[in-house]
Amino acid sequence: MATMTSSVIDAAPRLFPVVAALAVAATLAGASLGGSAVSAGACLAMLVLGLPHGSLDLELIRSRRRHGGMGDVLAVLTLYLGCAAAMVAVWRLDPVAALALFILIAVWHFAEDWEGVDLPLLHAGGALALLSAPTLFNRAALDEAFVALTGSASAAVMSDALTLVAPVALMLAAVTLVMHWQAGRKGQAVDLGVALVAMIVL
């Protein structure tokens, strides 16, 4: 199981830019990515490519800490369930505030994915660019998604905030991309570039 886990984790990052690039190319060619068939395919891709992102944490703990025992598993489960319960509580109290918190956590979390750039501002800028890029050409769809998620029309204020920060965030992301490329981390540069284009176009 540990070998399979490692193989999936190793393969997922290499598949991401290919899948994203194909989706962008299909959209630019005029193909519709709406409908139940495409949605089902997207969900399947998300399941397969996103599986290593959290779902296999317990298996990773077992494989990397062979002497950790059940205590590590229970600790991680307790932490996960506690975080989930806290987010549910915040969401029930104020869905828009919970959405804002989720976006902030996402920026912090995505910023951890980029290695080799010593400036935290560039890490955060690249992460924020991924979340704010859809406001460039898909603002109405973003409003609709946020309102549907929270059940509140005031959630559109989050789109306003992302629209305001998008230009600066995208510039910081461009600087980050160039720095990765110049430093020989071409894989990270391609990943960031493809992700940004996908978020803008799709």
Notes on the structure:
- This protein is an all-alpha fold.
- 79% of the residues lie in helices and 0% in strands.
- Helix 4 packs across helix 5 and helix 8 packs antiparallel against helix 9.
The backbone outline, from C-alpha atoms, is: globular
Task: Tell me the number of strands.
Answer: 0
Count of DSSP-assigned helices: 9
Task: Return the string of H and E elements.
Answer: HHHHHHHHH
The largest pleated sheet is described as:
none
Helix content: over 70%
Average pLDDT, rounded to a whole number, is 81
Distance between the first and last residues' Cα: 35 Å
**Low-confidence blocks of residues:** none
Rg for CA atoms: 19 Å
Structure classification: mainly alpha
Quote the beta fraction. Answer: under 5%
Defining traits:
202 residues; mainly alpha
